[in-house]
Amino acid sequence: MESTTNQKSSFDLSFKTKLKEINDMLSSIEKNCIKTNNFHDILQKINELQEFLNDSKTFLPAYNMKKCSNEIKDITKCYEQLHEKLQPKKKFTFGKRPIKSVVKPKVEDTFEPINESKVYKEDYGFKNRSDENLMLTEDETFSKDIALDVLTNCNVIICGTPSTVRVISLSRCKIFACASTSIFVENCKDTIFVCASQQLRIHDSIATDFYIYVTSSAIIENCKQLRFAPLTLNSLILKKSFEIASFDESNNNWKIINDFDWLSSYEPSPNWCEIPEEERDQPSENNYV
User: Fold this and answer.
1) Number of Cβ within a 10 Å radius of residue 96
2) Dihedral pair phi/psi, residue 110, rounded to 5°
3) 192 pairs with which residues across the strands?
4) Which residues are 234's β-sheet partners?
5) How many CB atoms lie within 10 A of CB 67?
6) Is residue 240 within 8 Å of 223, Cβ to Cβ?
């Protein structure tokens, strides 16, 4: 019995370490948003992780096998989407595809430029704002990378379906966002997120609530006092974003939180919890439009 317990503990440590290494490689590539030759190495590490899991099935419970298998599927999906985004294959076409017209914001509605050293050059968003209601329209966000940087006591509504949303250094804010691929949260506190995406990654954040829809699983690292609850479609803006992104409300993995600072897969992480049903009070964008 003791030997099996030791095997499980050793597996937990090794699996989390290997998974974190892959995730860090993907995050590094995505932050720089550059083409790279490291995709082959990442794919090899994913294959090695799958082999490691297969070799451990003799002593792992079925629940843990399924959980780890789903985590490998999620990281593989992240790899495939990032590879396609940065190194897409050329496709043969007979003619030009129709391009969605984008209505540019008026001069008085434009916002401050984003610090290019911290986010993608293609990003749109808000930086260094406080005590404001801020909004981006569907035309302004279509297929864009959106960045929110250093906001205090702001309510931000991101309409439509941007490609990604990156959020850095927020305090006492309410954020409403639906991204077609990923949402990244870093260094946030005392904030409420109402968000939907395929992937959700949260780093270096504390005392923050998330009402989420996610099709894979959320990843947290170096976080404390996070709380999660399922997102509900309580506004027309959110419902329209769901339709554009073709999200299925019934396919929500909001309970699957992968904490890279918690090695045990048999005990719950102390860094996050579910919001008790009697305390759930999801904000509505309608109050800030």
Assistant:
1) 6
2) -70, 160
3) 174, 209
4) none
5) 15
6) no
Q: Which token pair is 80? A: 């495939």
Task: State the alpha helices, DSSP H only, in the chain.
Answer: 2-32, 39-55, 62-86, 138-141, 236-245
DSSP code string of 81-102: HHHHHHSPPP---SSPPP----
pLDDT tens by residue, 220-256:
999 999 999 999 998 888 899 998 888 998 889 999 8
CA-based Rg of the chain, rounded to a whole angstrom?
Answer: 20
Tens digit of pLDDT for each residue in 111-157? 333 343 333 344 689 999 999 999 999 988 988 899 999 999 999 99
Alpha-carbon gap, residue 200 to 195, rounded angstroms: 9
The pLDDT assigned to 101 comes to 43
Sequence-distant (6+) residues with CB within 8 A of 93 are: none
Residue 229's DSSP bridge partners are 211
**Tokens 């309409």 belong to which residue?**
159
Point out the residues of the chain with pLDDT beneath 50: 1-2, 90-122
Contact residues for 115 (Cβ-Cβ < 8 A; gap 6+):
127, 149
Interacting residues of 235 by C-beta distance below 8 A, sequence separation 6+: 284, 285, 286
Amino acid at 41: D
